[in-house]
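quick one, 262 residues, struct below
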Amino acid sequence: MMRALWSAATGMLAKQLNMDVIANNLANLNTVGFKKSRVDFQDLMYQNLRAAGTTVAEGAKVPSGIQVGLGTRPAAIQRIFSQGDFVQTENPLDLVIEGDGFFQVLMPDGSVAYTRDGAFKMDSEGRIVTSDGFPIEPELVIPPEAVNITIGSDGTVSVMLAGQEEPEEMGKIELARFVNPAGLTSIGRNLFKSTAASGQPIVGTPGLEGFGTIAQGFLEMSNVKVVEEMVNMIIAQRAYEVNSKAIQTSDDMLAIANNLKR
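---
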């Protein structure tokens, strides 16, 4: 059986996975805080028909060997955490991180998840929560008599209460960052969980020790670039076609060999 059949098949499977990732990027073009992904590929093992450096005669060695590759495989799907574009909303609970860091979200099971989605809301108890009702960590509660909410670049949350002339501080938003954010695992809902690859979260104050600052009234949009993804889609499609053509050509060659007569 020709090696080209199996090698080209791995290429088709690889490009199919690449298209899946591209489609997911494009599907989340308008998802707040979404970070695009990229597929990394590796070549498979090689069949050595003749090793380099083999002695063929006295004092003569083969300068290069004969290795036949057996295809490709996906090695990783890497999340790219570049900054997305900012959009002004003038909503006091819409927050954006200018720089490194993640908002912390307390999950129902008591664990902490992380997000770049700053489209926060207020629940019936006055807590600042995500669109799914998960409170931010540390928990912040806005009094019902608050008439104005101000969030500083360092995460300080202050409110103006009815009948008062000076704002009152309610708490502070803390950010988390990771040595390797690409090692975070996505759990959907714009949330990530830490893993052994990402390392433990480093929690700190916005604007200090490498953390980004917080801007109120803005949202960070997806970092997906339509033109870039369309070009990647065309390249993936053409590579898929070329691999399918290699399978067809290999099949034609086998048919010719099968129809040989004396």
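The mean pLDDT is 92.
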